[in-house]
């Protein structure tokens, strides 16, 4: 597991001293990740996956949440239509026919909290809160412009059950237990 924090003064437009940690996982068969919490404590999650499940962006490091080229292209198009420098906040909430559903919205990067994880792709940032990341770690976001079934598609290795529309899912009891221990 590799946890890297930015040292460049240009990282996300913040001085190096205020840069947030970027989460990444090695492409080995099993990895551990720790999520920061207030009070100096951390919640740990052990993840097992096939090395080919997540696409590496550089070397052997794979992002916590990855984007396909189609998804990145469509997100950049949507952001350009708004003429604002926005990031994508992605998360999970209770609800949906399988128990949990995905949330996505554009927001200013300045609204990200210190506990949020930030993943960058060619100048586009994805922000995710620690509790949601427990349910989405290793997920790939894709986009399809198909007439039927088009839109954003979530390829989530943590989902044990997905509804027909693909926007609602269920996870294992281990993931739910780890998330309930997280106070964020």
State the helix count: 3
Proper CATH architecture: Sandwich
**H/E series:** EEEEEEHEEEEHEEEEH
Rg is: 16 Å
* CATH fold topology: Hypothetical Protein Aq_1857, Chain: A
User: Which term fits the overall shape?
Assistant: globular
| Strands in their spatial order, largest beta sheet | 9-10-7-8-14-13
Helix content: 10-25%
SS-based structural class?
A: alpha+beta
- Sketch the major β-sheet: 6 strands, mixed
Distance between the termini: 22 Å
CATH homology superfamily: HesB-like domain
Count of strand segments: 14
InterPro entries: ATAP, ATAP_core_dom, FeS_cluster_insertion_CS, HesB-like_dom_sf, IscA_plant_cyanobact
Protein name: Core domain-containing protein
Pfam families: Fe-S_biosyn
Family: Belongs to the HesB/IscA family. Ycf83 subfamily.
Notes on the protein architecture:
With 184 residues, this protein is α+β, with helices and mostly antiparallel strands. It has one domain: HesB-like domain (Hypothetical Protein Aq_1857, Chain: A, Sandwich). The strands form 4 sheets. It has a 6-stranded mixed beta sheet with strand order 9-10-7-8-14-13. A hairpin with a 5-residue loop joins strand 7 and strand 8. The longest helix has 14 residues. It is globular, with a radius of gyration of 16 Å. This is Core domain-containing protein. Belongs to the HesB/IscA family. Ycf83 subfamily. Pfam families: Fe-S_biosyn.
């Amino acid at each position: 597991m590799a946890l890297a924090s930015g040292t460049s003064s240009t990282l996300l437009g913040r001085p190096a001293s205020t840069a947030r940690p970027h989460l990444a996982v090695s492409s080995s068969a099993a990895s551990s990740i720790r999520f920061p919490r207030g009070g100096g404590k951390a919640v740990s999650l052990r993840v097992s996956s096939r090395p080919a499940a997540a696409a590496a962006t550089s070397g052997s490091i794979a992002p916590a949440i990855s984007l396909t080229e189609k998804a990145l292209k469509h997100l950049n198009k949507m952001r350009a239509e708004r003429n604002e420098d926005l990031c994508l906040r992605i998360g999970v909430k209770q609800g949906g026919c399988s128990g949990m559903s995905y949330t996505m919205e554009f927001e200013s990067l300045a609204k990200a909290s210190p506990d949020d994880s930030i993943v960058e792709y060619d100048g586009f940032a994805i922000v995710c809160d620690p509790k949601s990341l427990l349910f989405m770690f290793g997920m790939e976001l894709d986009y399809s412009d198909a007439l039927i079934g088009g839109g954003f598609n979530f390829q989530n290795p943590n989902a044990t059950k997905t509804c027909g529309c693909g926007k609602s899912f269920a996870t294992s009891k281990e993931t739910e237990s780890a998330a309930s221990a997280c106070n964020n």
